[in-house]
UniProtKB/TrEMBL annotation, chains A, B, C, D:
Biological process terms in GO annotation: D-gluconate metabolic process; organic acid catabolic process; pentose-phosphate shunt
Coiled coil feature spans: none
Domain 6-phosphogluconate dehydrogenase C-terminal: start-end pairs: 184-339
GO molecular function terms listed in the Swiss-Prot or TrEMBL record: NADP binding; phosphogluconate dehydrogenase (decarboxylating) activity
Gene3D superfamilies assigned to the protein according to its UniProt record, in alphabetical order: N-(1-d-carboxylethyl)-l-norvaline Dehydrogenase, domain 2, NAD(P)-binding Rossmann-like Domain
Pfam families with a match to the protein in the record: 6PGD (PF00393), NAD_binding_2 (PF03446)
Name of the protein this chain belongs to: Decarboxylating 6-phosphogluconate dehydrogenase
Keywords from the named record: Gluconate utilization, Oxidoreductase
Family affiliation: Belongs to the 6-phosphogluconate dehydrogenase family.
């Protein structure tokens, strides 16, 4: 079927390629003309204005937005006046689900359908397919099924779950209608919250392995340093690239994130090409905020979020307060950083 | 080659089956005669006393212990006097790596080799193979390579890591000599610490999804209850069995642990067959303790550990202290549990 | 000066008593007539309808609301139509500071002033005085200074801070104009967030002390139980009522919350009169939510919040997910609770 | 009575001054002669060798060690051969309680008594008195009561706990016999663990207050930055020195640590004289380790410990792992630090 795609960055462009390969007709637009031209070369129909983009789509139109969350409202303000009743807007980016609810209500007042799609898969999605978490009206979601099916990884992407017999379900294909407007991005939000936690678990564990040799280091013996009581138990020089490769086969903690970690450590065993300033793109925050509203304890997901904040220096003032208190009650003077 | 196996529980028995299938000769012993007989039927050589077990092995003997961590020292006390210089003991259970160092030193004084193997794979290992993290002397580990190779999943168990060219390494086969005595169990310990963190991340996220309908519930409006400010944002009835199945394909958080979760939710969508009292088997504790010795921050791994403690009621007294303080300063009276 | 007080619960009633003692004229109202009568006996002017209440106040009126946060909007809807331009409303309860901003804007449209006051002190405030965190217009706050001064503890409530010379400041008296509308409740919100953290720190530490005798207990020796490696180090029977009393004098951790804890443990050493279900009244949640918006890491404040959620059973489903996973990969069966 | 003091640093010297003022005879030694001379000027009997120190004490001698934890064993090796059966050694420093148990057993084999004293109070102890947590044999502790009473703050240091009638107890004086050897340092260890948690709670809360103005800042709008959704709610410029001074009077979170914080913020409102590298001196680590052995959940105490580790850069490798993963799945490139 025909799909219009607005936003041809890393994600949008790859998705168009995947759709074109599956013989869907893609009309594309991006504010950067070169991005459009690149996809024309892949078989997409390029357009260079939103007006032209809309004109090239047959009603009822299906327009997929793959733009930064902060740019969605502006794009909708441009787009909606050009659309007709019965047309469909799909927000496939990382929007906050509460915005979906608001936008869906606004679109509905103009008889335009609004579908939110949480899209996971990253740069590998071109080959592996995308995991799609969909929210919106049932009939509209069903209408878009051919698109979702082409983007999703398909049933062979994972071994079957024993005993599963749900013929009507599309979850095994890699896409799912999760509920009404916002449900797709809600599920994606939590997906990313979990992702933060899993990533942090690997990161912390690898840091413990990396420091298994602390018993070999000479430590300061002053009142500001806690001596290591049993240096004989910390004499290991562990090979992290080999261990992460090892765990990929047969261990309980095998995962795609581990595959990526093994790959990164293979080329840069000490990760010297990174500074360790870790961004967060909102979903982790929103997941914790939702958990608080729901009174659900999420010590792991919040710890993962706060680790990222701290990696960017945001704990600095807290730390100074601690040093000031220690100076106050004990006369303790801060040690300088290791050279 | 020939291997002796002591301890024919879930793990030990399956490992023997896997070895026998790979045409290794297995001499087996368990204090429960029926466990021995079961494996005789699978092609193993059964023995019914430790003496007989040792007698049936050709020197230099390779004896693999697969017994509970708490039972290893007793078994060694029985076994070592029956062995000869040059024989090899392999502890494949969940021993604390510090015990390996002690036991290895004791064994060495009798010219017996000691190898520690962290074994991951669980009940699925019979088919999937076991991920083996090995510590000990290099030559001894190499001597045992045929056994490790038969137990391990093999190179096809995971897609190749792009660019990897380490022909001498066995990590791609699923086993690895990690370092001297204790290194195998140290790596396994951290593996399990990570496992706790990953499991907790999924668990917390699923709890957030499950409570996405709190806006539909009528809540108390008293001074002891925080009202939900925006019930309209928590109106989703999410289908956890479908969502976990969905995430198995193409998402960033795909993993074997997720596969197991999807499978559990398929047969018991509300997990009513569980009480939620979560045991911990030591490695999570030891990982956090190692992190503290190394001064490595592990907020996620510790949160995962403490969640398990709390699930067993261990926070109860802390909670009472909080209630007592609240009563003291604010006259607050505890609410009773929901009926 | 004259003050009207609406809401004569624990907090409101005590505040009126304190004001009356300081020779301020208090006009009071509560929907429960008996509460009004009780304060009439203390020297307050009782009223039995909001209309009568307003009529008894001289313009410009100063009306202090001390009602549950959830009841403020309803009370304002009744009250505001009865007021005149220039009158002042003070919300002294536990409102969310974002509501202050909204309500202040609404009141301003009717030329009514709106002041938010975070009030700390609990049931002890009658004698100790109340710590007041105030937000609103500068002139209006200054107009109310006699009221704030009478409610606050006064300068003698704490030893002077060495070197402090800020004659214009009222902080030493125990009340402070923190900023524009909402600033008072923002500061109070964070105050309570800190309170949760401090309370949790004591609670956890006391739990560690209480269990210093675990080495004396016989523990199970099965694969689901981690054995205590060094029972000889956990042989202490510590006397918590005595230790908390001790810490009140000269220790670094002396505080009013510790005083309350010592008092609670004196009368109920095992805290058997509590079930350990700990409510939270919103501020802890809002503090963490604000921290997330600000990208400030708050692992302690969030841990304290989540401990409260967990104390009320909210981690139950997470825990079941963990048990289900453990069953999936290891065949582990949950242990039943200790009898 | 007579007491010998070895170790005349900040703590030891102040304690001698306090004892001399209370008319106790103090024989003092320090490896730095000037430290001895300083105390001679205060009325202590100075000695310049351990031999001379011991010779100046009357049997049964009472020798108080106030040296760094790492120096205790060396000092004992010198001291014990010079002592006689019936003499008493008191370790008043920050030793690990497990060392007390070992040292007590060794001392006992020579009929020397060993007492461990956890000493809280810091540099303020000279005036305020010291809170003393004591472990050891009952008779020996009673023999030392005059010394403990002189060092402790005394009953007037805190208001009485209502209803308390325990005439035999010394807790109200500020010292307590907590139990057998190690009990004093065990209680002090947990005291410090709690201290870390309380300090961290204040520090985090103050960081949230400090950033209440983030809505005024211009933020980046790129895919690596989460936009602040409601800048209008973060427009406050809060005065931390005033707020901490305020909270000292009448609030629920008043404490000595808050007094110190207010004092530090008074002289350095932005704490620019600190780098924020926070040391830990062992007790926080040991408290968490004890909690793990006891299966007591301590999410707050551990978060406080890990914040300190992170303040010293120890999370750096973890953070790099996260960045590497993000690059792997999403092609995300790290943002550079704010200039």
């Amino acid at each position: 079927m025909q799909l219009g795609m607005i936003g041809l960055g890393r994600m949008g462009a790859n998705m168009v390629c995947r759709l074109v390969k599956a013989d869907h007709e893609c009309v594309v637009y991006d504010r950067t003309p070169q991005a459009v031209k690149n996809l024309q070369a892949q078989g997409a129909i390029g357009t260079f204005s939103v007006e032209d983009f809309v004109a090239r789509l047959a009603a009822p139109r299906a327009v997929w937005l793959m733009v930064p969350a902060a740019a969605v409202d502006d794009m909708l303000a441009t787009l909606i006046p050009l659309l007709q009743p019965g047309d469909i807007i799909i927000d496939g980016g990382n929007s906050y689900y509460r915005d979906d609810i608001r936008r869906g209500t606004e679109a509905k007042s103009k008889q335009i359908h609004y579908v939110d799609v949480g899209t996971s898969g990253g740069v590998a999605g071109l080959d592996r397919g995308y995991c799609l978490m969909v929210g919106g009206e049932k009939e509209v979601v069903q209408h878009l099924a051919p698109i979702f099916a082409a983007l999703a990884p398909g049933i062979d992407a994972a071994p079957p779950t024993a005993g599963r017999k749900k013929p009507g379900s599309t979850a095994e294909q890699g896409y799912l209608h999760c509920g009404p407007q916002g449900a797709g991005h809600f599920v994606k939000m939590v997906h990313n919250g979990i992702e933060y936690g899993i990533m942090g678990a690997y990161a912390e564990g690898l840091n413990v392995l990396r420091n298994a040799n602390v018993g070999k280091q000479k430590s300061d013996s002053d009142a500001e340093t806690t001596p290591l009581r049993n240096p004989e138990f910390y004499q290991y020089e562990l090979d992290l690239p080999e261990i992460t490769e090892l765990w990929r086969r047969g261990s309980v903690i095998g995962s795609w994130l581990l595959d990526l970690t093994a790959s990164a450590l293979l080329t840069d065993p000490k990760l010297e090409s990174y500074a360790g300033r870790v961004s967060d793109s909102g979903e982790g925050r929103w997941t914790v905020a939702a958990a608080i509203d729901e009174a659900v304890p999420v010590p792991i997901l919040s710890a993962a979020l706060f680790e990222r904040f701290s990696s960017r220096g945001e704990a600095g003032f807290s730390d100074k307060v601690l040093s000031a208190m220690r100076h106050g009650f004990g006369g303790h003077v801060e040690k300088t950083a290791k050279q």
